[in-house]
Structures are given as C-alpha cells and as structure tokens.
Amino acid sequence: MRKAIVCLGVAAVLTAGWLIAGCSRARQATRLIGSTSILPFAEMLAEEFNALNPDMHVEVQGGGSAAGLQAVADGIAEIGMCSRGLKSQELEQYEPIVIAFDGLSVVVYPGNPVSDLSLEQIRGIFTGQITNWSQLGGGDGPIHVITREEGSGTREAFQKMVMGEARISRRAVTQESNGAVKELVRNDPASIGYMSMGLAGELKNLSIAHARPTRQNVLPDSKGQRKYSLVRPFLFVTRKGAPMPTGAKRFVDFVLSPRGGAMLEKEGLVAPRETGQSH
Amino acid sequence: MLVAFSAVSALALITAFIFRAGLPIMMKVGLGDFIFSNEWRPTDASPSFGIFPMIMGSLAVTAGAMVIGVSLGLACAIVLTQFCHPRAVSVLKPAIELLAGIPSVVFGFIGVVILVPLIRQYLGGWGLSVLAASLVLGIMMLPTVTSITVDALQAVPRSYGDGSIALGATKWQTTHMVLLKAAGSGIMAAVILGMGRAIGETMAVIMVIGNWLDVPHSILDPARTLTSNIALEMGYSAGEHRQALFATGVVLFVIIMAVNTAALAFSRHHLRKAGMR
Fold this sequence. Notes:
- The complex is a heterodimer of chains A (about 280) and B (about 280).
- Chain A has about 280 residues and is α/β, with parallel strands linked by helices.
- Chain A has helices spanning about 1-30, 40-50, 65-75, 90, 120-125, 155-165, 180-185, 215-220, 245-255, 260-265, 270-275, and strands at about 30-35, 55-60, 80, 95-110, 115, 145-150, 175, 190-195, 205, 205-210, 230-240.
- Chain A is elongated, with a radius of gyration of 23 Å.
- The N and C termini of chain A lie far apart (about 80 Å).
- Chain B has a two-stranded antiparallel ribbon.
- Helix content of chain B is about 75%, strand content about 0%.
- Chain B has a single domain (about 50-275), classed as MetI-like fold, CATH 1.10.3720.10.
- Chain B has about 280 residues and is mainly α.
- In chain B, a hairpin with a 6-residue loop joins strand 1 (about 40) and strand 2 (about 50).
- Chain B has helices at about 1-30, 30-35, 50-80, 85-100, 105-120, 130-155, 160-165, 170-180, 185-200, 205-210, 225-235, 240-275, and strands at about 40, 50.
- The longest helix of chain B is centred in the last third of the chain and has 38 residues, at about 240-275.
- At the A-B interface, strand 7 and helix 7 of A face helix 5 of B.
C-alpha cells in the first residue's frame, strides 16, 4: 500500500514537472507560418531575434499565404505570413501588420536581349496572345511562360496587379515555389516568370514601362506615387481581437525596429518606416 | 483476423471519406462535364471544374512509362532468369530491387537537374515534359516489373524449357516461344502493377512535368496529372475547390482500383493455371 502511494507520488511530481517545463516552453515559443516569399526574410529575422533573446524562440515555416492565414485561425501559429493585401472579409478576422513592401519582378533568362516591357505586353504574354520573343524585340523563338500554383500569394498579387480580369494561359507551366521558378528561368533561355524582387538574384529583372524594380522606384514619392507599379505589402497577420502573446509581440517589435528594417532593406525589400520618413 | 480487419477498415474509411468529400461537387458539376470539360478554373468568380487535361496527362505519362518500364523490366527479367550466371543474379536482382527503396523526391530531383536540361537542349521545347516524366516513372517501375516477372518465369515448370531444348530449339527460341507464353499471365500482372505505380506517383512527376493545364499534344509538351493536380493545389484550397480536388481523387481511386483488380484477376488466373499442372 505504502509502496503504491510512493509510486503515485513520484509519478505526480514527474508529471507536474513535465507540465511546467512544457508550459514554459510553450510560452516562449512563437510560430510563424505562411508565404514562401516572406519565408527567407522571416528566417533571417528570426535567427537574429533568437540570438539576441536567448529566452525566446521563434520558429518559421512555409506553406503559402493561405495556409498561413488558416494556421492563425486554427491557433497553430501565433503569426501568419501573407504576401498580398488582405481581402475585406479576411480583415474581419485578421489583423495585418505591414512589415515591408516588395516589388514584384518580372524575370527572364540572364542572357535575354529584351529588357523593357509594358504592362499590356506582359499581360499579353501571360494570357498567351504574345507567343514569340520576336514580337517583343528579342530573338525568334517561343516564349515559355512560368506561373505559380493556385493559392500562391505571389500569383494572387500578380493576377491582381498585372492580369486584372484576364486569365493566365492554360499553357503556362506551373511551379510550386519561388525556388522552382528561379531554377527554371535561370536555365531556360526562352522563359519568363515572376517573383519577389528580393529573391530574383542573378536573374534578369525586366523594367516595366521604363521603371526598373529598384528600391528607389518602389518607394512612393512625395505625392504617394510609385514609379514602379508592381508593389505588394508583406504582412504579418494575427488573430483579430485576441491579445498577442509576449513572444510574438516582441518579435513584431523587433521586425518593425530600425534594426529589423535595415536587415530587410539589405535584402532588397523596402521597410515601411523608411517610407514614412521619406514623406 | 482482427489485424486483417484493421487494414480493411482503414481502406473502407478512406474510401468513404474521399467519396463523401468528392461526390457532391461531381454531382453539382455533372459527371460528364467534370470528366470531359477542358476548363479548370477553381478560384474564378464563376469557377469551372473540368479534369479532362489531367486525365489525358495521367494516361500519356503512364503509357510512356509503360513503354520504357515494361520493355526494360521484361528484358532485365529474361536476362536474369535465362542468360545469367546464378552468382551474378544474386548480386543483380537485389540491386534492381534496391531501386524501389529510393525516395521518389530523389528521382524527381535527378530528373529536374539532369534529365530536363538534356531534353531541352537536344530535343527542344520546355524540357519539363511528358517524356521526362515517362523516363523517370519508367525507371521507378523497373523493380516492380522486373521482380514479379522473374518470379513468374521461375514458376514455369522446368520440364517446359527442357522439352523445348530437347526438341532442338535454341535457348532464345525456348525463352520467347515457350517460357514467355507459359508465364504470360504472371507477366501481365507485373505490367499492371507497374502501371498502378506509375499512375499513382506524385512527387517525382510534379517536379518534372511542368503542370500546365492543357492537354499535351506531343511527348515534349508539359502536362498535368491527376496526382500532381491534387498535390499542387490541396494546400491552399477551400470550399468547392477542395471538394473538386477530392473528386479528382475519386477519379484516380476508381482508375487505380480498376487496375489493381485487373492485376489480381490475372495473377489468380496464373495461379490456377500453375496449380493445374
């Protein structure tokens, strides 16, 4: 009998210890899920944040903008990453925080002679009406159009800003990540795709209506006008009406701080604070 | 008994689940439209759900994979059972079966990095193509086809081969006129199982096929298969879009069930024939 009581006591203490340890870990861990466009930047910020705050831990996962919103709604993540503006019915449920503006680059093979297109020309390419590079001042050859899968934030942003009501051609090859698009465009001289300006790397960025996708052109001027037209917000999204956990709050503050902003700027994004100061 | 039942109940649950999730949208769109319409615009304001291009993509890729996988697999099996020193066989057969253990994403990666640029450079077009997917899948189904065919050939009674040789036929004549005929239904089962593998494969295919939404017109065109359609869009989908992906799963399920049932029927037939001897 006494033995059984001792056993129970030990088990209870162990369980309690485990629970307390579990709770304290849960309190300090912050999870971010969402857009693969924001993912590399968020990882970089999280690494720096974790190094600066040993008592905190931020974890970052991809999955796409829609998955990020879903994860916040389900309580799987404290912060969702969304690479497009929220729709009006989403605004009823989520609280967006703009962490940066991103220029959307239209990218081609580095050796492609074409370097400037109008929005109408890009729309023509992606709807499938323009099919040969010679129609655009390049060499003779078919255009290989690369798009992203349904539900990708980058695709939604592209659809909204470039395509409008027009549909992306059925004969556009669909890749499921920025990395896959990049790999394809880097190796295929006939290809054209789109991705975040900061991720384009060694690919050739087309200028659109004679404006290059640079930080200068993405920033609004004193009248709030931008030279480069394809700009979208990068959002951190939290649940509306619920107080943010301490860890998440501190991470957001860090990202919005001058230090976080400088890190984002270095990677080719445009921090919102800077935008404010330039007015 | 209980253990067997747990496996069967898992199958029943999965079947019930995907049919329940997928059937409503099929009924709403209409079975004919769902299967034969060309338009897949799941997130449009007025969405349309037609998976004909994906069905054609799956069929094209599977057919291509069979040409490669079956001819290579059959050849491998014949060499292994008839023209190879037993000691060589004891090394070669496990090596071929080892192929089955390589994860499909690795096959896909090799396809993207090596095969796709080669096709683009030497044959033109996208590189991402039905051909690339067929080659990758053909190699992936090799172990299935080879090992089942080897078993079928080894199950042919020795007397058949000996009799043929005694009648003056050469080794090759004996192999293709007697042994292949006698093992026919077993070989058929191997082919059909390999086909099931090709039709159901997802990851490797997504990486090398390009996933466009049109029906492929040549083997150098990209395509989209039923499996890649589900895997590409499932993560983001909601509402009717999600249901339509489950309905795509229903179509795939029916095709794979039909293929497996055929394989089972063939192998039963084979066993009965073998038993009668």
